[in-house]
Amino acid sequence: MAKREILVEEHSGAPIENVFKLLITTTTWSNWTPFSNVERVVDSELDDKYDSDDFDRVGSVKELTFLGVKSREKLISFNEPDEFVYTYIKGGFEKLLKNHRGVVTLSKEDSGTYIKWEGFFEDRFFGSGLVVKSLVTPFIKRCARGLARYAEKI
Question: Would you identify the CATH topology of the domain 3-32+79-153?
Answer without folding.
Answer: Alpha-D-Glucose-1,6-Bisphosphate; Chain A, domain 4 (3.30.530)
